[in-house]
Amino acid sequence: GSTIETKRDFEGIESKFSLRTAHEPDEDICYLVPGQDDTLARCNFNHTSKTFVVIHGWTVTGMYESWVPKLVDALYKREPDSNVIVVDWLSRAQQHYPVSAAYTKLVGKDVARFIDWMEEQFSYPLDNLHLLGYSLGAHAAGIAGSLTKNKINRITGLDPAGPNFEYAEATTRLSPDDADFVDVLHTYTRGSPDRSIGIQKPVGHIDIYPNGGGFQPGCNLGEALRLIAEKGLGDVDQLVKCSHERSIHLFIDSLLYKDKTNVAYRCNAKETFEKGLCLSCRKNRCNNLGYTVNKVRAKRNTKMYLKTRSQMPYKVFHYQVKIHFFGKANVTKTNQPFLVSLYGTASESKNIALVLPEISTNKTSSFLVYTEVNIGDLLMLTLQWEKESIFSWSDWWTSYTFDIQRVRVKAGETQKKMVFCSRDGISYLRKGKEAAVFVKCMEKPKKRGPGGGGEKSCEKTSSQHHESA
């Protein structure tokens, strides 16, 4: 094709492509211009490295938000030789929200033409290309991926925008078809689907919902007031965006804290996850959040869950705890407050507060316990049934006792299963009374033959037998 033709090809591109440097992650010093081949050399584009393309979202101020240089910086820290390109579509992004939402089609088209140019003109391999889009930018990335001549390696959707997209056709939003691999973080999916800031439905190969995806720890009103007290009203928009933007900071965390990888677990619903029932890593049921995700493409999209801390590094350790409550009379109690303490080979985590939705006589309860402390291998745990903080008649009325013989624990991060026995053979759990203590069970000698094996025993006698040992 003649040069006139190519010039016309790139005429309508309004988005700008800034190749940032590790040196000045917050400055737009050099732009790659589709159709102007010399701009790559001028901006020191590295042809043999991977390229990250960062696409921002809706903006009220018409300026970049503070997370942009943070993400650029973290990408360069992790991949010093890479090219980090920031797509500037600020003028379109600062319109009335529905207008900006509609512009994602044009931004996606710009980005696709930029990528096709790189591939056709410089044979840049799309295997080296990773798009990261936040909010509306996630959908722009998806549209770009659906329009390129060949498939992009990976798109990461950082809390893709919900309004105008929750019920949209797959072609106008981020979807699994848009790249070889699409991973998505959902951090602010509150309210009814059409009102939710972040999209609620899964839109990738792997969709991770940290802390259930609705709202993130450390983003509540109390924190807000503290922020305003410390930093003044200038940061109020940070408040509204706190959970939405957490998606970006979780990804930054995955770039900076190699040794503290957050693990997410496949689960059909957040209620099931809260019961601790999903801490399995068999058959790709768990995966790393963020940069080091394993690219698993199932037939249908995979919803995954995890808990996090309220600040970086976000990693916590997940445990499933299973207890059978024995008792004489049939009793069911709802929303009971408990304190759990875990004692391990490396450290301990005391008085983790949790509320059990329901406990019943002669039924087994399963629940999730998590801690930011890496306690090592669990050696002992204690369980205390708390009194309600306000005096209630029912407390005084029923001093009901549950008997517990053993506690089963599964550690998500190590996949180890353990059984703990009452130190006294049977522990009596009473509301407002002291904690019940459970220690690693003594193993019975393994029986040969069928059925003999791993079942650990907790006979009353075991504690006396081993006293002298």
From TrEMBL:
Q: Where is the active site?
A: 135 (nucleophile), 159 (charge relay system), 244 (charge relay system)
Family to which this protein belongs = Belongs to the AB hydrolase superfamily. Lipase family.
For the biological process aspect of GO, one term held by this record is: triglyceride homeostasis
Q: How does it sit in the membrane?
A: Peripheral membrane protein
Instruction: Give a short account of what the protein does.
Output: Key enzyme in triglyceride metabolism. Catalyzes the hydrolysis of triglycerides from circulating chylomicrons and very low density lipoproteins (VLDL), and thereby plays an important role in lipid clearance from the blood stream, lipid utilization and storage. Mediates margination of triglyceride-rich lipoprotein particles in capillaries. Recruited to its site of action on the luminal surface of vascular endothelium by binding to GPIHBP1 and cell surface heparan sulfate proteoglycans.
**Which intervals carry biased composition (Basic and acidic residues)?**
456-469
Q: Give a Pfam family name.
A: PLAT
Report the protein name in the record: Lipoprotein lipase
> Which region ranges are annotated with the description Disordered?
444-469
Enzyme Commission number(s) of this protein = 3.1.1.34
Molecular function per GO: apolipoprotein binding; calcium ion binding; heparan sulfate proteoglycan binding; heparin binding; lipoprotein lipase activity; lipoprotein particle binding; phospholipase A1 activity; protein homodimerization activity
Q: Which residues participate in Ca(2+) binding?
A: 173, 178
Which leading EC class covers this enzyme? hydrolase
Give the organism, scientific name: Pelodiscus sinensis (Chinese softshell turtle)
Top-level taxon in the UniProt lineage: Eukaryota
- What's its catalytic activity? a triacylglycerol + H2O = a diacylglycerol + a fatty acid + H(+)
**Where does it localize?**
Cell membrane; Secreted; Secreted, Extracellular space, Extracellular matrix
> PLAT domain: which residues?
317-440
Fill in the PTM field for this protein: Tyrosine nitration after lipopolysaccharide (LPS) challenge down-regulates the lipase activity.
Q: What is its main location?
A: membrane
Its quaternary organisation is: Homodimer. Interacts with APOC2; the interaction activates LPL activity in the presence of lipids.
What InterPro entries does this protein map onto?
AB_hydrolase_fold, Lipase, Lipase_LIPH, Lipase_N, Lipo_Lipase, PLAT/LH2_dom, PLAT/LH2_dom_sf, TAG_lipase
Any single GO CC term annotated in Swiss-Prot or TrEMBL for this entry: chylomicron
**Keyword vocabulary terms for this entry:** Calcium, Cell membrane, Chylomicron, Disulfide bond, Extracellular matrix, Glycoprotein, Heparin-binding, Hydrolase, Lipid degradation, Lipid metabolism, Membrane, Metal-binding, Nitration, Secreted, Signal, VLDL
Lineage at the top is: Eukaryota, Metazoa, Chordata, Craniata, Vertebrata
